[in-house]
Amino acid sequence: MMESNELRIFKAVAQEGSITKAAKIMGYVQSNVTARIQQLESELKTPLFYRQHGMILTPAGEKLKVYAEQIIHLLDEANLALNDADNPVGSLSIGASPTISSFHLPEILAQYHQSYPKVDLSFITSNTDELITKLLHFQLDGAFVKSLSFSDDNIVKELVFEETLVLISSPQYHDLKTVCSKPFLMNTTGCPNRILLENWLTLNGIHNIRIMEFNTLDAIIEGVMADLGASFVPQSAVKKYEESGRLQSFSIPAPYNAVKTFFIRHKDSQKTSALSKFMEMIELKTPYHSMVRTAG
Asked: What is the residue-averaged pLDDT of the chain?
């Protein structure tokens, strides 16, 4: 009969693709990990790994991995449910898209850490597809993603932030035609801001669009202020720079000037007190001008 510890060892080997790495992560001797994997394969009467050039999952192993993730997650959730309290403890893993993470979130994360020091808080930055994959595999408790539209029955959209986007340039330019002839400092292909900008430019007959790719909002804004090019960013992100005369913005008509950011989580994950307190802080401290709750 399978034991939870065997499943944890199996999951570690599957993720690392190596007995040696899994043993190191779990604090076991390598021979113990090997024996437990062999025991699990014997119990299930099927090989779970191909052993050439590392540990590669067989089709049976791929199937078991899905169940192992769910079972381990449920066991961890049960432990949290029995030990959770209004004073959060345990771990909290949050992810965010690059152009979201660089603005405001560091301050909120710092305040959360100061308010709830017993929570083991971790934070990663990645693209939306990877964040959703990690969420679906219970590797994140929640994530901020920016997307025009996405749908997955396993994803719950807890918070929605609506942002107005504006074209920005250094202060010496006074007309859109000049601004639109410059290179655009944008995130990678697939970024909703970039898609909206390219659609609007195409609508206005501008096809030879030069893009310089940046991975953070801070870098984009600094680049624009240095007159490296123009960009298309949330209005709230550049308000202080515009007020100080370091850059200027140009309005773009709807529907090309609005984008949504979602805070999402897995529908089967427990909303622990650590996550609930984080969401409460986001609601209280968020700089975004509009926010509504959704059910999925």
From this structure: 86
